[in-house]
Amino acid sequence: MHDLWIASNNRKKLGELRRLLASLPIRLHTPDELGQPFAPVEDQPDFAGNARKKAELLAQLSGSFALGDDSGLCVDALGGRPGVFSARYGGEGLDDRQRLEHLLGELRDVPAPQRTAHFVCHICVCDARGRVLAAIEARCEGTLLTAPSGEGGFGYDPIFVPVEFAGDATSTFAQLDAATKDRLSHRGKALRQLMAQLPDLLATP
């Protein structure tokens, strides 16, 4: 059994990670077990840089293997925004729903054919010395609704319809069952690529 620290205390994100990694002989740990602050500054220009920064810091603090991920929504009509700013889009102090409403306001006049977008997830795994052992990026293409639909998921999930369900407003990420979302999502795709090599990576001396 190997130990792997996850650079997030987000319960919903951790739920996805635990589901997807459940078949592997791995014990997952979270930053709240450190007994000291874990507050990486996400100031990098891309998902890869932020994921690496989180993984390196957590590896240093925990003295063990660490997984950092950075993900976000890239909207074509907005030139790729919110991108790396997805979790804080619209300014400090907004919650998920307020950020979603801010984004919808920016897209108010964008017609359906132009409401294309994709989610990106970049995953980085570092060893206890901060060496990068794996860096994987995956994406999920889709379109954006004009109003939220569904109570599940988090972030921008209630307005994102994956391309596999194009035209079906009842199949946002917030409405799909966990297994279907895991199969289609950016994070699910990235983690499945990682799973094939993770046990060997965690055995690295």
Explain what this protein looks like in three dimensions.
The chain has a single domain (2-202), classed as Maf protein, CATH 3.90.950.10. The protein starts with a strand and ends with a helix. The protein is α/β, with parallel strands linked by helices and 205 residues long. The protein has helices spanning 11-21, 47-62, 96-106, 178-184, 186-195, 198-202, and strands at 2-6, 26-29, 66-75, 116-126, 132-144, 160-162. Helices cover 29% and strands 22% of the residues. A 6-stranded mixed beta sheet has the order 2-1-3-4-5-6. The model has no long low-confidence stretch (mean pLDDT 92).
Q: What is the average per-residue confidence, as pLDDT, rounded to a whole number?
A: 92
Choose one word for the global shape: globular
CATH topology name, in short, is Maf protein
DSSP helix count? Answer: 6
Strand order of the largest sheet: 2-1-3-4-5-6
- Roughly what percent helix? 25-40%
Domain count: the total is: 1
What multimeric state do the chains show?
single chain
Number of strands: 6
